[in-house]
Amino acid sequence: MKYSNAPLPVIFALLLTACGQGEPPQGPVEGGLGVPSGIYAVDKSHTYVVFSYLHQDLSYPLLRVTNVDGELQLDNGSMENSKVSIAIAVDSIRTNLDYFDNELASRKFFHAEKYPHITFATHSYKPLSDSLGELTGFVTIRDVTRPVVLSVTINGAMEHPMLKKPVIGFSATGSLHRSDFDLDRFIPAVADKVEIRIEAEFLHGSNDESAAAAKLATEAITNADPAILKMVATSGAER
Fold it and tell me: What pTM does this model have?
């Protein structure tokens, strides 16, 4: 099955904790999270991405994504080496209005037919404490790549009480300007700044869809403007 046909920009639930407490995960465990290093796939049934923006100085509509996939490469011994690679299916963005869903997928906005995915690929992760960190990466929309910084809270990690495999969950927030991606319709009546909130769970192991999404995210930045990549690399080195 091709990934492009399979099920990245406010969410209100912290969904890491399931019913009860599981036993410690099996296998080698290092670091403070209590789960093994390795590849973790997005748990699509417990991962949420929502975009919000100011509409005519009146309200903040909430646009949710219903198809998120990708992988976390966790280095539990050196968290700064961990990476997240995510792909969002553009035609899965929902607004509660069918006509607006279609408008967003059209060439007027995201042009899903030509650019079917929004991707995020990690540049660096900076731990600020055991549970807080700063994730810097690159978002690619309509073949335009720009840097974004997300504030991350690691909510917890454990053995999933029902699936009996290691799971890790985090919350993340950040923002971007849609005009940076040539999405400037209706500015300033509709705000340029878009707020992003993410609630995500990752299950230990990979699968075809998560690996395909991670590959898309990685490939997206290979076509990015080298000046953008260099700018972020230089600023990261100076921190």
Answer: 0.82
> How long a stretch of residues is the chain?
239
Query: Of 67, 66, 68, 62, nearest to 50 (Cα)?
Result: 62
Domains: count for the chain: 1
Q: Is residue 107 part of a domain?
A: yes
Tens of pLDDT, residue by residue over 99-108, are: 999 999 999 9
Distances (CA, A) of 117 to 3, 6, 89, 217, 219: 10, 11, 5, 9, 12
What's the CATH code of the domain at 146?
A: 2.40.128.110
**Cis preceding-peptide flag for 24 (omega within 30 of 0):** no
The answer to whether 209 and 6 have CB atoms below 8 angstroms apart is yes
In the structure encoding, which two tokens stand for residue 25, read together? 């995960």
